[in-house]
């Protein structure tokens, strides 16, 4: 009888553990809401006046002009509808050439997260990238967390 109770207890414990692991797996797989990126810019060689590894969130034509006051405004930024869109631009230095960049933009609670993935090539020239995206309008003064993933040598 003790053996039956012991085996039953182990079976119940095993089932409870499996069920809790299954629940954790499902919670880990919940996807973040993706915010639609309406446009990505090709790599920009002329970086506006912002710090390397940072971004600027732009919600008005005035701020856009202030950011690019000392450099050429890229053609892709000349006709942005700031009633419907937000522009995010930035730069990131690399120690190798850049093959391509990929952009992801998510809503995380009341904040947003911009993940830039940079794929390096074998060129030994430190290149760096200027980058930008246009997303659906986000509120002014909303925090945007910026993360960079670098893939390559």
Q: Can you give a write-up of this model?
A:
With 153 residues, this protein is an alpha+beta fold. It folds into 2 domains: 1-30; 37-151, no CATH class. Helix content is 22%, strand content 35%. A 4-stranded antiparallel β-sheet has the order 1-6-3-2, covered by helices on one side. Strands 4-5-7 form a 3-stranded mixed β-sheet, with no helix packed on it. A hairpin with a 2-residue loop joins strand 4 (98-108) and strand 5 (111-120).
Q: Could you give the count of β-strands?
A: 7
Radius of gyration: 23 Å
* Rounded average pLDDT: 76
**Unreliable runs, pLDDT <50, ≥5 residues?**
21-29
Helix content: 10-25%
Number of domains: 2
Distance between the termini: 63 Å
Strands of the widest sheet, in order across it, are 1-6-3-2
Q: Tell me what portion of residues adopts beta-strand conformation.
A: 25-35%
User: What class do helices, strands and sheet pairing give?
Assistant: alpha+beta
Determine the number of helices (DSSP H or I, runs of at least 4 residues): 2
Name the shape in a single word: globular
Main β-sheet description: 4 strands, antiparallel
Would you list the SSEs in sequence order as H and E? HEEHEEEEE
């Amino acid at each position: 009888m003790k053996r039956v109770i012991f085996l039953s207890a182990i079976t119940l414990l095993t089932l409870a553990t499996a069920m809790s692991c299954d629940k954790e797996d499902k919670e880990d797989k919940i996807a973040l809401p993706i915010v639609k990126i309406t446009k990505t810019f090709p790599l920009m060689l002329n970086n506006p006046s912002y710090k390397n590894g940072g971004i600027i969130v732009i919600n008005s034509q005035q701020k856009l002009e202030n950011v690019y006051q000392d450099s050429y405004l890229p053609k892709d930024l000349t006709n942005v509808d700031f009633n419907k869109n937000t522009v995010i631009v930035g730069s990131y230095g690399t120690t190798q050439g850049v093959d391509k960049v990929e952009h992801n933009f998510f809503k995380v609670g009341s904040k947003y997260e911009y993940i830039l993935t940079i794929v390096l090539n074998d060129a030994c020239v430190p290149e760096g990238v200027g980058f930008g995206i246009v997303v659906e309008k986000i509120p002014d003064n909303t925090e945007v967390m910026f993360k960079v993933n670098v893939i390559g040598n």
